[in-house]
């Protein structure tokens, strides 16, 4: 009887371990393309904790990006990037990860965010700026603070993108003027050292900007109208 109990116990724990491994194996999701409602729905349908997200996107809707980031943060997701992560993908979603893994060909790029718009609006004080709530900027700042990312990263972006002009549109239905900021460069593609120093992003691996051959390939492909690596 004792022997049978031992055998059953070993079998039970073996099954438990197998189930755990199986769940971990299936708990992987690929997010590719434009950030929109469909991508958010895909995230909400994840039925496991600590998912491994394979991310590749050139950006998308800011508000949706923030909602996706909040979902991934709650799930304690690991995010891997081996291809492209630009704009809202890099600004909002990537910092929400519990752990980040970047491949040597990963192209991480920035061109401004809600926090930058808020800060520049407060600096230039266009007519009606008092009506602005800056809700997306506040949500993004809160995310950065929770994840230990630097909320003043926008200053580094301005430094490398080179602000050349500022204009504000007439107040929208919310009576808040919308800022339009002209930059010398469309996109900043920082290297690993800059990502860690200025954004405060902790990650394993390296990025395209670290490698001369990858930078040369980007230069030949002419992906962006204008960009800078540093």
Description:
The protein has 230 residues and is of the alpha/beta class. The chain has one domain: 2-enoyl-CoA Hydratase, Chain A, domain 1 (Alpha-Beta Complex). Helices cover 45% and strands 18% of the residues. The chain is built from nine helices and eleven strands. It has helices at 2-26, 37-44, 62-75, 88-93, 114-124, 135-147, 153-161, 192-199, 212-221, and strands spanning 28-32, 52-56, 78-81, 84-86, 99-102, 107-109, 163-168, 179-183, 187-188, 204-205, 227-228. It has a five-stranded parallel beta sheet with strand order 1-2-3-5-10. The protein has a two-stranded parallel ribbon with strand order 4-6. Strands 7-8 form a two-stranded antiparallel ribbon. β1, α2 (37-44) and β2 (52-56) form a beta-alpha-beta unit. α3 runs parallel beside α6 (135-147) and α5 packs across α6 (135-147). It starts with a helix and ends with a strand. The model is unreliable at 1-26 (pLDDT under 50).
